[in-house]
């Protein structure tokens, strides 16, 4: 049997509960993973609260798009993995059906990469979604190069912290925004070349000033909302904005400064492509070995304490990843 977290209606954290289900057998091309640790993501929060961007199955929705564990059983026609291999799950497009908050999941073999050597299960659960999103948005989508100046909003988020490190690994200059100056030191220690707090003033003007008036090459924005147009004025002519999230759920404003390229980034456009996944995995592997990438874990909860883990997510006081362990 496998413990599986499900919910039958959207709402507060206590809609989440555990049921026991028979372990599934992997079919051809599939692998069963015994989950060790699960990263809790903002997407999970959106799903649980009903703010998910697409319809999903209810009742009996599963949840979770990130996890790491050990290969437990192989279907036929699977090459490259063996029982006992430590792996990371790279994409769960239908988390209501295949969600990772469970003791075991069955996934197609091409949705797995090997867990980098020396990475603990807990750190492994804090790696993939944040770092593949930051790498995909900045490197694959925006074409970030050494020397580029990159403005990263909500930089204390898991994705933001990953973006600071990815930019540093490439040799770019990351600038961080936060709502509160209380996070300045944390963000400087995390690799930001400068930190702009919105409670202190206009972050776009501060970023332009940092670049001597030239403007930044890339803006990676996880906030969106009515502030996008003003934020975009931090970009140099010909620069770009990569929108990776919408922490501010209000309608977004449309930038008017030009020329400017705007991307709306979803990491699935890369994490479902095995060729890009191979590049992502190689980049992350190198970054971990060099010590440039250091996943930050906020807190660890046992799977049976999933409600407490989601309460921590809802409070919004976390910095780094909330992780569940089986
Ligand atoms: N495109 C993709 O494929 C993809 C993949 C993964 C995640 N995402 C998105 O990336 C974003 C970050 O996710 P995460 O899991 O890393 O978040 P997280 O760790 O939960 O981020 C929390 C931080 O975000 C900042 N924040 C929260 N609400 C905000 C608001 N309304 N305005 C400004 N800042 C706010 C706060 O920082 P301060 O207090 O310092 O301001 C807070 O500490 C989310 O929007 C998520 O949906 C996108």
Give the arrangement of secondary structure elements.
Layout: E1 2-7, E2 17-21, E3 30-40, H1 42-49, E4 61-62, E5 67-74, E6 86-89, H2 95-98, E7 104-108, E8 112-114, H3 121-125, H4 128-141, E9 149-152, H5 158-170, E10 173-178, H6 184-189, E11 194-197, H7 203-210, E12 216-221, H8 228-232, E13 235-243, E14 260-264, H9 268-271, H10 274-290, E15 297-302, H11 306-315, E16 321-325
Parallel strand pairs: 9-10, 9-12, 10-11, 12-13, 13-14, 15-16
Antiparallel strand pairs: 1-2, 1-4, 3-5, 3-7, 3-16, 5-6, 6-8
Helix pairs in contact: 4-5, 4-10
Bound molecules: NADP nicotinamide-adenine-dinucleotide phosphate (NAP).
NADP nicotinamide-adenine-dinucleotide phosphate binds next to helix 1, helix 4 and helix 5.
Structural commentary:
- By secondary structure, this protein is of the alpha/beta class.
- The protein folds into two domains: 2-127 and 295-325, Quinone Oxidoreductase, Chain A, domain 1 (Alpha-Beta Complex), CATH 3.90.180; 135-268, Rossmann fold.
- The protein has eleven helices and 16 strands.
- The chain has helices at 42-49, 95-98, 121-125, 128-141, 158-170, 184-189, 203-210, 228-232, 268-271, 274-290, 306-315; strands at residues 2-7, 17-21, 30-40, 61-62, 67-74, 86-89, 104-108, 112-114, 149-152, 173-178, 194-197, 216-221, 235-243, 260-264, 297-302, 321-325.
- α4 crosses α5 and α4 (128-141) crosses α10 (274-290).
- The structure holds NADP nicotinamide-adenine-dinucleotide phosphate (NAP).
